[in-house]
Amino acid sequence: MRKRVLFFCFAGLMSFMAYSQLSVVKMVGKNSGNSKLGFGAFAYWDIPLNDIGNRSVMIELLDFAYFPSRNSQLNSVIAYISIKAGFRYIFSEETKTGFYIEPSLGYCRVVSNEGPDGTYGDGLAVAGEAGYTIEVGQRGNNLNFGLKYETDMAGTNHTVSSIGFRVAYSFHLFRKRDE
User: What is the pTM of this model?
Assistant: First the structure.
């Protein structure tokens, strides 16, 4: 019981610093014909490497995608969850507004509900995101629009590739930007 309380306190504290968002995801490649358009959720930490914030280390605490089956008779579901670290490079020297690229690498778990018992596999997650970020307001807040390609390699039967459209708004409640 004590471990659970400590875990939830830690998770609550970290959620103030993490930016949680939603995405629309489409599976591509192997088994993509069996699934519909999916949805996802992600949360990340943005650790700036300079005063402007246009270069930063990204730690994706959670990246979850769910792909429902196209055939309702099969009741099969494919989903993945991954944790990754990457680097965001914004092509602007003065502000956080501009086009960006973000390669990342990490751990994944791919789950399949096909057959009588669900199966899963653990493996390597490789992702690349490209998009545009707009700085909003006086506190270093920004609005991100991005396309992300991710491949989760968790074994021969549990490899998933997907393309996702992400819209994210990250805001800082109590922090003022240094001028």
Answer: 0.78
